[in-house]
Amino acid sequence: MIQVNNLCFGFTTAEIFNNLSFDIHQGEILSVIGPNGSGKSTLLRLLRGSLKPQSGEILWDHIPLEKIPTPAMARRVAVVPQSSATPFPYKVRELVAMGRYPYRKNFLSFENKSDLQAIEQALVMTDILPLAERSVTQLSGGEIQRVLLARALAQNSSVLFLDEATNHLDIDHRFELTELMLRLNREQHTTIVQISHDLDLAAAISQRILLLTEHGNIAAIGSPQEVMTAANLQQIFRVDVKVDSNPFTGAPQIVPLINNSTHQLNGLKVHLICGGGNGKTLLRRLHMAKANLTAGPLNQGDSDETTANVLNVPVVQEIPFSPFSKNTLATAGQFIAQTDVLVVTTRWWGAGNLPCLDLAEKAIQQGTAVFLLSQQQDQDYTGGKAWDKIQQLQQQGALPVRNEEHLLDELEKLTAA
Ligand SMILES: Nc1ncnc2c1ncn2[C@@H]1O[C@H](COP(=O)(O)OP(=O)(O)OP(=O)(O)O)[C@@H](O)[C@H]1O
């Protein structure tokens, strides 16, 4: 629907886009993300013709943008800008009514019935009807944002551009706006291009995401799953994140790996026997504390395996839904033989993972420090075999630890020794 071909543009201060090419599909929600100053707002201005490319072309339904008359463009695309700090003292209803200007015969003509309907509907949809007679200078940032959105909605356009429209909104109105965008998209097939720094929201609602580099190049464009990868976000935003899948929507969900570790393990070699999600938080905490980690055996697809992969932790893998084979256990034994410390975080014991406790026994015999994290008898599904073995391991020198904090304290003592 919109085609951008070899777009070049810069301000006198700096070049922003150099040969940018991509398409916007009719009826899609496309989110544009990228670092501050990467050119997202500038791109929206170019797409609607309020800035002119230095070279290249922008086509709307195969027609060059500069050939489309301004009133036609005004009916076609509505814009919710980043809210301005000091708007002119219009009443809210007057500002929303400006969304109808593209439909007026001339500046002096009165609002007709469909204008009034569209204005009323926009005020209701954005939850600002009670503010209709107030001056916009008296409104909060979030309220102004909703007024600007209402003005765009009153325009009844087939394309909506939103520039950080959820920026000032509280969680309630952020949800409402998001639902509204989805409704417009589904029911009226409105094409939505939105700039957002809320990556989770962008991933949740967009069919596609355009990720810009700090120099205005396309780092990636595609489905949220294709674009929102830890590697892409690390490369563009230089942040350490883990990308999970939202359990309700399946959309990528970003978990910042903020280093809040108060422990320092200075490269201590730690191997984790984990599984079923019992090792996830510990893997992250040990990684933050700068332990030198390995893990396994783990079935492929186990959430602990996914976490280990994100953190680039070498893992001894077993095929999904299978007991650990002799080969896999032997490889895990080789990993453990190289480590300073073995931590057993697995809680639920069954016939499939019971042999892991033999690996722990061998480690003790080899003189490796072995820690058993929060083991409990009622998590043993082997008819008592696992619990007996855990008792034996403790007699042989394995140390039980209450929780992850206790474990990290003990490991730090080992590092200092
Ligand atoms: N009118 C202007 N004159 C000169 N430089 C400008 C102008 N408008 C924007 N810029 C510069 O162009 C670059 C891109 O700005 P733009 O506002 O498009 O970035 P953005 O990706 O939307 O940023 P943010 O995430 O901070 O909103 C920035 O370096 C900015 O300083």
From TrEMBL:
The keyword Ubl conjugation does not apply. InterPro entries: AAA+_ATPase, ABC_transporter-like_ATP-bd, ABC_transporter-like_CS, P-loop_NTPase. Keywords: ATP-binding, Nucleotide-binding, Translocase, Transport. It holds the Pfam family ABC_tran. GO terms for molecular function: ATP binding; ATP hydrolysis activity. Residues 2-240 form the ABC transporter domain. CDD domains: ABC_Iron-Siderophores_B12_Hemin (cd03214). Coiled coil: none annotated. Part of the ABC transporter complex HmuTUV involved in hemin import. Responsible for energy coupling to the transport system. This is Iron complex transport system ATP-binding protein. It comes from Desulfuromusa kysingii.
